[in-house]
Amino acid sequence: MKHKTSLLLAGMVLFFVWAVSSCKHEIPLTDAQTAIIGGTQTCSTDTVYFQNKVLPLLNSSCAMSGCHDAITREDGVELTSYAKIISTGGVRAGNPAGSDLYKVLNKSGSDRMPPPPAAAFTQAQKDIVYKWILQGAKNNACNDCDTAVFTYSGAVAPVMTTYCKGCHNPSSLGGGIDVSTYASVKTIAANGKLMGSINHTAGYIAMPQGSSKLSDCRIQQVQKWILSGTLNN
Q1: CB-hemisphere CA count at 13 Å for 126?
Q2: Helix or strand or coil: residue 118?
Q3: To 10 degrees, what angle do helices 182-190 and 216-227 make?
Q4: In this structure, is the dihedral angle defined by the CA atoms of residues 114, 143, 151 and 190, taken in order, positive or negative?
Q5: H helices within 99-208, ranges in order?
Q6: What is the pLDDT of residue 21?
């Protein structure tokens, strides 16, 4: 009887170990954690806002087909939303050095994210992710758009860098389009592809691909720049 009890206990322990090791689950988030903080508040230069800077950067550079989009989920990681980034991206709020999301940006070779031949994050982009995690990895936002600003350097180039450049640069010419220079952006503005894509007009590939449409304010900035002559200003 004692021998049978020992075998039963051993079996239960083995089953528990197997269940824990084989069960890969995501960390559940509460409504309070996923709710966007702010959104209408004025942006602070000391704060990195997830919705304004981090999410667009990860969407355009990492959450692409074949990588970390909702379908592929390479290595179980999906970087399409705040909830998915927190639950699958190995983010440790307040600890960038211990967060997988930040560590992979600094690796080399095929271990680096985004992997070659895609361009590596610039130091400025790494700093955005680092500071966001350091500040608590919050789902925050601010109002950083003004339709009165529609110069190339003040409005259009930042939109291209934040939302588009990850897929459309010399190392990764998605659709054969490069938005890393003024000349190339002017070309797609002149042929109608830029407005057609960001407006999600029928017959054009909706951009940013796989993520939310640009805000009305940002679309107006780009449109006003085009109507004013697509100047390199």
Answers
A1: 18
A2: coil
A3: 90
A4: positive
A5: 100-103, 123-134, 157-159, 182-190, 193-198
A6: 40
Rounded CA-CA distance 76/137 in Å is 20
Q: Under the phi-then-psi rule, with left for phi > 0, alpha for psi from -120 to 50, and beta for the rest, what region is 109?
A: left
pLDDT in tens, 82-129: 999 999 999 999 999 999 999 999 998 888 888 887 778 899 999 999
Q: State the virtual CA torsion across 171, 158, 219, 64 in degrees, nearest 10.
A: 40
User: Are 145 and 39 contacting, i.e. CB atoms less than 8 angstroms apart?
Assistant: no
pTM recorded for the entire structure: 0.68
> Is the backbone peptide bond immediately before 117 cis, with ω within 30 degrees of 0?
yes
Residue 133 neighbours by CB distance under 10 Å: 23
SS3 of 8-72: HHHHHHHHHHHHHHHCCCCCCCCHHHHCCEEEEEECCCCCCCHHHHHHHHHHHHCCCCCCCCCCC
